[in-house]
Amino acid sequence: MARSLDVIGDWWSLLILRNVLAGIRRFSDLQKDLGVSKNILAARLRLLVDEGILEMAPASDGSAFQEYVATPKGKALTPVIIALAEWGKDHLFDDGERINMPLDVERRRPLGRLQIVAHDGRKLTMNDVVITDQA
Predict the structure, then answer these.
(1) Within a 10 A sphere around the Cβ of 54, how many other Cβ atoms?
(2) Collapsing DSSP states into helix, strand and coil, what is residue 52?
(3) Strand, helix or coil at 49?
(4) 8 is a domain residue
């Protein structure tokens, strides 16, 4: 877990990745949406690119701009972002308060809850889980 947090543990990094996954991909658009200073944004983007979570690509609109896109390694963090959003909704927001939550693209409906599932498919609770070192 410590190695993971070295790469994505900074909250700006997760917010940047969330925005890129949501389609906000240009530096100026990320800076405007997040309200982050340009130097912090540049440093976090550089780290995310260096770690292979994001990559630079030609702008999707055919312009001369470059965009940040999530790599497969970056897309693999989607469950982390969803889990944080679920936890925040459960513990940090009042009922009825507006919150950004991921939706099913096809039906535009909220996702079902993330679940912890055993290797054989059984649904588990935290009481059914132990965290241990393993090679």
Answers:
(1) 25
(2) coil
(3) helix
(4) yes
